[in-house]
Design brief:
With about 210 residues, the protein is an alpha+beta fold. Helices cover about 40% and strands about 20% of the residues. Helix 3 links the parallel strand 1 and strand 2. It starts with a helix and ends with a helix.
């Protein structure tokens, strides 16, 4: 009701199987997962992964303060709200999480060798083949590719891609870089460079193997 008063259209689904079905039927921007209604551990991980695999959706978790210590930093969620929550905080987090997707719709196509990022469609392709990325993987890749040759510290990436209040810390950056690399890099394609002791950058000039692959 509070979200509706703030101009958001939303609905409630009682079980995880219905969530996946509703995602398939509707055009959604974001999913809240009430982590207190699910067993801690594999079921939460499985549901968040299934949501993101079905569509590139942002996920915000709702969680009790007592569960914070046991919250897995590798859990594939974009933000969380601690109960009891204030409506203004929930709305602020929704707007922050959805902001990159809104900005992306106005961007130009980014091409780096065989890699093509289409912000208007939120699509990534490599050598003409679509690459399935989660919401945050896509945002990280797009941000780095939009700033070729610039080195970003982990803290800077957290600020630009996640927002400084993201709970996972800079470890999340390493985790997501590994995930992105596993999906867009191989023996003939290398895009993201690790700058030892600093952070990451997107290569300004691709290696000869990457260029010749196209």
């Amino acid at each position: 009701m509070g979200l509706a008063q703030k101009g958001f259209t939303s609905s409630i689904v009682q079980n995880s199987e219905d969530v996946i079905e509703q995602i398939a039927k509707q055009t959604l921007d974001l999913v809240f997962i009430d982590m207190n209604s699910l067993p801690v551990g594999s079921e939460i991980w499985d549901l968040s992964q299934r949501v993101k695999q079905r569509k590139r959706l942002a996920v915000i978790a709702l969680i009790f303060p007592q569960a914070l210590d046991g919250l897995d930093p590798d859990l594939d969620i974009d933000d969380f709200v601690v109960q009891p929550w204030e409506l203004d905080e929930v709305v602020a987090r929704v707007k922050r999480v959805l902001r990159p997707a809104s900005d992306a719709s106005q961007g130009k196509v980014i091409e780096c060798g065989d890699l093509r990022i289409d912000p208007a469609r939120c699509e990534v392709s490599l050598s003409g083949n679509l690459v399935e990325l989660t919401f945050r993987e896509y945002e990280l890749l797009k941000f780095l590719a939009s700033n070729t040759g610039i080195v970003f510290t982990r803290d800077a990436l957290l600020d630009k891609v996640w927002g400084y209040d993201y709970y996972g810390g800079d470890r999340a950056v390493d985790v997501y870089v590994r995930r992105v690399r596993s999906k867009v890099e191989d023996a003939t394609h290398s895009f993201i460079e690790t700058v030892r002791g600093v952070g990451y950058k997107f290569k300004r000039e691709l290696s000869s193997t990457s260029q010749s692959a196209g």
